[in-house]
């Protein structure tokens, strides 16, 4: 059985949820049948969106440090608990000798396999993820059109994401529900949760009846790479 290494800290709750989803989705009858997992909860990683949009401190150095630590601690494969951090995916890959699973590529592959008739997806993510083009490039190669929020809609999504990072209890999902409706009206046939904070909120409120959660896809890909069976009965019921 292979050991999974998680680059976390972006934010910590998202990494904790990814760990939890790997555990829940793994077919196991006892402790010893579960996958060994190492988490580097690196809270020194600078804000990814601030770097992309405003030339803030680059997170690349800390991401590489985390990857190297995980490799040194015995990880056989690395996953990154942040979509926006995939902007630096190539730098992370070059820094280690073990495989790094690309969450965005796995998400596109999942849509192609589970929703073969879908031609257009709506992306709900950080502004950094949307503007960086990391989803658009991968999805275009997979033959998928991408619809993204307009600037005012994106502000609502950004507020929601950072409320989760602050562990906000007074989250109002109303504006996000309107964004989902607007993306559907512009042709989106499926919603992609392209931020690892979003499933925490979408699971708590009735924002969307069905979606593709990129972190759930990543959890399944990591389980398969580790050599274990996926317990599909435990899959998020709203997953397409």
Descriptive terms for the model:
four-stranded parallel sheet; 11 helices; alpha/beta; globular; 240 residues; 47% helix; Rossmann fold; 12% strand; three-stranded parallel sheet
Ordered list of secondary-structure elements with their pairings:
Layout: E1 4-8, H1 12-25, E2 37-41, H2 48-54, H3 60-72, E3 77-80, H4 89-95, H5 103-114, E4 120-124, H6 127-132, H7 134-141, E5 145-147, H8 151-165, H9 174-185, E6 190-193, H10 198-202, E7 212-213, H11 214-226
Parallel strand pairs: 1-2, 1-3, 4-5, 4-6, 6-7
Helix pairs in contact: 1-11, 5-11, 8-9
Tell me what you see in this structure:
The protein has 240 residues and is an alpha/beta fold. The longest helix has 15 residues, at 151-165. Strands 5-4-6-7 form a four-stranded parallel beta sheet, with helices on both faces. The chain starts with a strand and ends in a 14-residue tail after the last helix. It is built from eleven helices and seven strands. Helix content is 47%, strand content 12%. The chain folds into two domains: 4-102 and 216-239, 3-Layer(aba) Sandwich (Rossmann fold), CATH 3.40.50; 104-214, Rossmann fold. The chain is globular.
């Amino acid at each position: 059985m292979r050991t999974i290494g998680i680059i976390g800290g972006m934010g910590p709750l998202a990494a904790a949820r990814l760990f939890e989803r790997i555990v829940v989705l793994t077919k196991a009858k006892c402790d010893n049948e579960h996958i060994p997992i190492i988490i580097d909860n690196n809270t020194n990683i600078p804000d990814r969106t601030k770097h992309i949009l405003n030339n803030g401190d680059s997170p690349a150095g800390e991401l590489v440090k985390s990857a190297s630590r995980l490799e040194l601690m015995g990880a056989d494969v690395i996953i990154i608990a942040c979509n926006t951090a995939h902007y630096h995916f190539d730098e992370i890959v070059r820094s280690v000798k073990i495989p790094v699973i690309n969450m965005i590529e796995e998400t596109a592959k999942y849509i192609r396999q589970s929703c073969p008739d879908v031609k257009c997806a709506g992306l709900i993510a950080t502004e950094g993820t949307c503007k960086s083009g990391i989803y658009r490039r991968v999805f275009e190669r997979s033959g998928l059109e991408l619809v993204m929020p307009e600037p005012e809609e994106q502000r609502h999504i950004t507020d929601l994401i950072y409320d989760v990072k602050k562990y906000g209890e007074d989250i109002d999902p109303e504006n996000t529900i309107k964004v989902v409706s607007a993306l559907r009206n512009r042709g989106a046939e499926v919603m992609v949760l392209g931020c690892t904070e979003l499933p925490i909120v979408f699971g708590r409120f009735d924002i969307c009846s069905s979606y593709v959660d990129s972190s759930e896809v990543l959890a399944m890909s990591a389980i398969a790479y580790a050599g274990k069976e996926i317990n599909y009965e435990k899959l998020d019921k709203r997953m397409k």
